[in-house]
Amino acid sequence: MSALRILVPVKRVIDYAVKPRVNKAQTGVETAGVKHSMNPFDELSVEESVRIREKKSAPGGVEDICVISAGPPKAQDVLRTAMAMGADRAIHVDVKEGEDLEPLTVAKLLRKAVEAEKSNLVILGKQSIDDDANQTGQMLAGLLGWPQATQASSVQFGEGDSVSVTKEVDGGVETVRAKLPMVVTTDLRLNEPRYASLPNIMKAKKKKLDKKTLADFGVTNERRLKVLKVTEPAPRQGGGKVDDVDGLVSKLKELGAI
Asked: Which domains does the chain have, with CATH numbers?
């Protein structure tokens, strides 16, 4: 097996502990003054990449772990976090605040990044918690013509360039085997991401972070979808109590349920 050059895409999203609110214009959720962090599924991807190196589970070893993120300047925060967790370097693709990229555009960007970085393994979260598209990894594999293994709960390296990936399915688990180069998307049971220590946070500030644009990769932000309106879900109606079975039957008849 040749040495791994791992590319890990990460995304800055509203923190999972924050309850999103629709903005006044009803064009999306409010982001101003709201805590952001790394997409939880992407944390798993960074952690798994670092563990592959630490455990020496890949016969050829790990030559490089590069994280990449497209977003406004604040996206560099999640890149620094990823480097504090153990990634070697980072690429920030500058995109204006609010100028969201659709999954296909991200996949096209990542294909160019893979080619430029000579990556032979891409590990990314199965989805981001803001749009829950669950499309980027599959699209990237299609554009590259690489095999893909999605929703990984275990990644094991075998002889040669073979990789076995296990995922949970209804009623059991499914294991697939493919050869590098390949794309792997991660699920929540894969690992438990580490907390970056203060010394590693300080070291991450000195690691290389390249600043790029979409144009540098020959990609344009082609929007195929238009958000018409974003609204809060309707509030749930409060339940009522009945004293006995007859009261329940009467209420059900009143509601037209029986």
From this structure: 4-255 (3.40.50.620)
